[in-house]
Amino acid sequence: MKSKSKRAVGLKYNEAESSKAPVIVAKGYDDLAEAIIASAREHGVLIHEDPYLSEFLATLDLGQSIPESLYFVIAELLAYSYVLQGKVPDNWKQAFPGIEEHI
Q1: Which pLDDT tens digit goes with each residue over 15-39?
Q2: Comparison of pLDDT for 45 and 38, the residue scoring more
Q3: Prediction pTM value
Q4: Which domains are seen in the chain, by residue range?
Q5: Burial readout 72-84 (b: 16 or more C-beta within 10 A, e: otherwise)
Q6: What distance in Å separates the CA atoms of residue 27 and residue 18, rounded to the nearest whole number?
């Protein structure tokens, strides 16, 4: 039985252009996927493993924005990645005073 090939998809979200959706900046399978993941780790990019999400994202073209149907999922992942890095969005500070003390 042949094992599934490794897949990687990289997204970029530009905070300065918050009105725009994240775009696909890298994607590949097997050796290229390994290289994408290694480069992400090397540059301190957080990695989320989700075979279903990556399968869907891999169908998009490089430079293409994520579809609106994924906004909520990707927004949750971005928010969680900020928290993992000890960052708190300004609007969270206003909505949840003292949140920084718990991170």
Answers
A1: 777 668 999 999 999 999 999 999 9
A2: 38
A3: 0.75
A4: 7-102 (3.40.1690.10)
A5: eebeebbeeeeee
A6: 23
